[in-house]
Amino acid sequence: MFFFWVIGQFSNRAALKSINKYALWLSLPGWIILAQVSESISTEEMEVDLFPMVYRVINSFLASSALLELVEEGQSDLFNKFRFWILVAILFYTFTTFFITLIGLKFGKEVWYLHNILNITTYILYSIGFYCCKRSHLDSDEALMI
Question: At CA 120, angle to CA 88 and CA 80, rounded to 5?
């Protein structure tokens, strides 16, 4: 649910903010419903959990929409923006772990190490974003002192 909130905060489009708001409020009821459906379609050979897959697809779509909005603004120093790196990290994590979840349905623990690699990469992307945020605050503080 945190991803829905972050994407909503970083977007300027009313439609995207509205979708994020509804997605945030529908997460808990959606989780309860999809947990029941998942339980009924799971077998001994394959355990299916629908909520994480649906959640990741929706977040991937929303993060990519927010990134597209950011790119369309035409800012020249996009790679120095905190918002850009946080949205890239969310998109990277949700998009790639969706596929790991799908692969995991068939191969299970054999591919779980890939999830760890994706987590580390996502944390690196978050770190770049926080570094950009810190650097921009330091630059603005220096400008105030001059």
Answer: 35
Quote the number of domains for the chain.
1
Locate all alpha helices (DSSP H) within the chain, ordered by sequence: 2-10, 14-41, 50-72, 82-107, 112-145
Closest listed residue to residue 57, CA positions, set 88, 93, 24: 93
Residue range 67-110, pLDDT digits in tens:
998 888 877 788 888 889 999 999 999 999 888 877 776 776 77
Strands (E), 5-146: none
Q: Which amino acid belongs to residue 107?
A: F
Please give the biggest Cα pair distance in the chain: 68
CB atoms within 10 A of CB 19: 19
Q: For residue 9, what are the domain limits?
A: 2-145
The residue among 114, 136, 133, 55 whose CA lies nearest residue 90 is 55
* Residue 92, both tokens: 């990277």
Distance CA 41, CA 17 (A): 33
